[in-house]
Amino acid sequence: MDSLTLQFVPYGEIQGLNSVKRIQKLLSLVKKDKIILLEGRLRSHEEAELIRKTMEEIDDKFKGIELSVVNPEADVAFFRRLKAALVHLLLGNRPGFTIIGPATIIKEIRHDPGKIQLLMQQSGRKKKR
Amino acid sequence: GIATKIDYEDFLKVGMKAKEAKERAKEATKGVIDSIKWLDDMDTVIVVLDATADPYSQVNITIIGNLEARKIPVLIVANKVDLKKADVKKVQAAFPQYDVIGISAKYGKNIDDFYEALFRMTT
Prior knowledge:
- The structure holds two protein chains of two kinds.
- Chain A is built from four helices and six strands.
- In chain A, the strands form two sheets. A four-stranded mixed β-sheet of chain A has the order 1-2-4-3. A two-stranded antiparallel sheet of chain A has the order 5-6.
- In chain A, a hairpin with a 2-residue loop joins strand 5 and strand 6 (115-120).
- By secondary structure, chain A is of the alpha+beta class.
- By secondary structure, chain B is α/β, with parallel strands linked by helices.
- In chain B, 44% of the residues lie in helices and 13% in strands.
- Chain B contains five helices and three strands, in the order H-H-E-H-E-H-E-H.
- Chain B has helices at 8-12, 18-38, 61-69, 88-94, 111-122; strands spanning 45-50, 74-79, 99-102.
- In chain B, helix 4 (88-94) links the parallel strand 2 (74-79) and strand 3 (99-102).
- The longest helix of chain B is centred in the first third of the chain and has 21 residues, at 18-38.
- Chain B is globular, with a radius of gyration of 16 Å.
- The relative contact order of chain B is 0.13.
- Chain A binds chain B through residues 43-44, 47-49, 51-52, 54-56, 58, 60, 63-69, 71, 74-75, 98, 103, 108, 110-112, 127-128, and chain B through 2-9, 12, 22, 25, 29-30, 32-33, 36, 39, 56-57, 60-63, 65-66, 69-70, 94, 96-97.
């Protein structure tokens, strides 16, 4: 039976790392076929760097990642946005969470209002030669 | 454009041979790396979506959020409004915080509105 590993990474585990080390840590987990549930989110330049590093490491086995940030404070009216700003001030990059998984396992992360769906790749796919 | 995954097998599906498909995939990864390098120099980003298809499956919303965090204005363009299945309101509902313009690139519909929206964002 195929198994699925979901690994929760508290923000504290990456907080003390510099950007390079953060990306290295997350990417190494994904390359072990783990789906990461990261508390909070990376900084915007770190997200871009994660994608850049992912592209550099793509090969026959590693096809890249699926990445989705879930932020419950997004798309809100003014006063709730104000509250969100205060939350951000207190929690920094920790509100919400980030899902990062190998593209060979996750076909798509569908993120629409009200739900998040992880669509998985079909296992045992026949390869054309 | 910016993607988070590239699979050379997708190029096999359109008839490429394995060696050519792998080279094409390699080019695609370099294209994404170059796009990321250019992000800091962008004044505006135009995201073109197919108005007849599910908007959520066409673009990684995290990447759009990344642009927002960098204070780069984003214009969502819903293409193919000439088709009956086109639903610009669905695209707007998926991206309520962004300007959405429906166009038909094939027939030139609403292209003036697109340019006006683009100029408003960049001036």
